[in-house]
Fold each of these.
Amino acid sequence: MFKDIDNQLYKFIFLVLLCIPLQLVSFEFTFAFIFILILFFLNRRNQIISKDFITAILFLLILFIIGISSTFFYKYQYWDIGKDIAYFLKPVLLLFLGYAIIHSIREESFFFKAFVYMGIAFAIIHIFRFISYPNVFSTSINTVRNATGLSNHVELIGLVFLILSFKYPKIKLFKKRSTSYSVIALLFVSFFLYFSRTMWFSIFLLLLTSFGYAKISLKALKYIGIVILLIGSFYIYLFSIEIPRDKPGISAFLYKMKIAPEEIFLPKVDLKNHAALWDHWRAYEAKMAFDQMKKQHHIIGRGFGSLVDLHFIAPLNDTGMRYISHLHNGYAMIYYKTGIIGLLFYLLFLLNLYLFTFYKNHLNIDIPITNLIAAIGIVLVFSTLIITGAYNLSDIYLFALGGLLALYDKHKLQAN
């Protein structure tokens, strides 16, 4: 009886944690809630931690320790130090929680059901908010997105699981194929209405890797080549037409797609030209960070609590900000805070995830667990460049990764 109660409690906690990326509450409250849950699970004596999980989490822990160590060489504001500690500790805690909760839940299918059913709920809410927004078709896409939602990766992951269920019957969630198609249609409509570049790139990467095309082979190169050809053709089309920057409707989304490469890599802009500055904001942040690093900073960084001087007061909040703690480019931020050593350990963390796609094939017969773990690694490689990857405040992938590592352990025990 008590085991059933525990099982239901773990399921409830898992579902609550899936809502956290939507930032329904403040980051401080969210972090405190996660920390309390960590203490709860650490106190449970029956919790088993595998070598694979320790390896995965160890790289992030070492990176965190490097940031802490670097801080002792400088005098920063305690509030800024505390924010960075919470910020860099959050993915570690979410990874552990996802692992601990799914390890404690008996039903393997719950992990997949949670993402799909929560995705359905979020999609319905999002579509309703979108269609009920005043003058939705005559308003700028950016304005609509800010009001109705920028992205939702719970929906994205749920959509991927449903697509995978056609090849892997063990994660089949609906008896009727028509029901699966209907839910996929619902999730895709919501997915499309986010007009999120990150979500589009993420779903391509997740599906390619989940179906096993991350391994270097002739078949994989064929599908990768097709994707590159499609993306290349799309960009050839975008650069062949004039797209107004502030035109209402889908033009704003196409404009953002067009400038995506230069938004990251071309930081030379005129500070007086606000439109050009915002179009290259990610690159500008990163350039300011690199410009402010001296020789002694390159090894272990400037530590937690360090701020990047933007050299002007940017309208990033109601009062404006000249000094910022976090950057959109996660690689630049990790390098700034923890130096080349910290960045190396982050890359090792991502490489370790990718290598799961080469692990024992018999574990992938029923559920593509190792491919999904590798897929998250590849998505983080991309998302770290534009939305800080594992350190994004609304990231859900580390939580999902913890759950997948728990499922991997269970399958590994069964296979042995």
Amino acid sequence: MSKISDVKAIQVFDSRGFPTISCKITLENQISAFAMVPSGASTGSKEALELRDNNLMYHGKGVFKAISNINNKLASLIIGKDPNNQDEIDKILIDFDGTDDKSSMGANAILAISLASSHVAAKSKDLNLYEHFSEIYSDITGENVNSSLPMPMFNILNGGEHADNNIDIQEFMIVPNGANDFSEIMQWSSEIYHNLKHIIRSKNYSTAVGDEGGFAPNLQSNEEALELIIESIQKSNLIPGGDVNIALDCAASEFFDGSNYFFRGENKKYSSSELVNYFENLITKYPIISIEDAMDENDFDGWKLITEKLGNRCQLVGDDLFVTNEKIFLDGVSKNIANSILIKFNQVGTITETIKTIFSARKNNYKTIISHRSGETEDTTISDLAVGLGVAQIKTGAPCRSDRIAKYNRLLWIENEGTNILLNE
């Protein structure tokens, strides 16, 4: 394969209007490709470090330091390398940084190169990106994987850090797992989403949207949000709990004070055990099949309790808990907490580490969900990653806003053009 001849990074902007990095890699044969890095708002404390300038420009959110690290330090390390050797490139970047959290060069700088390398390698081989990811997975893990289309979780009602409203639970998602194919998934989700808008408007609530495209009204309680979603599913002539289920992302670390969980919107306080009982009541009353970050990332007793009590009834997803880090994840496995892991490649910083974490989760019978971040771009890498690695689920926001829709549209094209790529069961 033609070797890398040039690496160039510039500052671009994410869906919240904050700076992020775009990196372009060019090969000796003049084939080039670029990728863009996402950014999160609700972040785990153990995530790899997103390097920001922290000066007066862009409210401190500039990424010129990270870009300088790419253009003036990291680029020379991989020029002359084969982009198809993803693990070699990622190891060079990790070793040069030399820190556990990539704080020297910045995880955003390292990820930008890692992503761009995968894009240009796929392009040079005239492969779809998801096909290339399947090959990388096999190279890194020694095992083959069947490509498949993931089941989306559509975040149609936003709260927490993703919206300026009084809802404490961060994401209320629909999971149309009764649909027959991805096209029908998109039809159902679009119809439910627009019916929800009409219902919210009929109650004289705001139909403004949050960071991920879900509506963000002020409501009386978290349960009112669930009731609105149930009504919107029924108005779409679909069956709650049959055609369409519900998933939650609580982002509990955002309302944990070190001792108790405080729902400010409802002025209610819960101990860990009381919060577990609260969730037990919710999944009994509503068709909730998945709860993400139900407890604080350091509340291991709470995680153990909810796993023991609800783990056989509900998917319990660790996001802030595991931050896509294989070592942290395996520590959680040893504690018997959660039964699923959210995968966000900017939490760990490279494609190689992301793949290793997914492989480790599979070996330990944990479900995996590929996820976007609240600060997104038009980059659709996660769609190809989910398909190429055969990951069963994907989170990438509401069926609204181009930064979210781009990922769904990419999956529609993969369904349309892919040979024997079916919905993951």
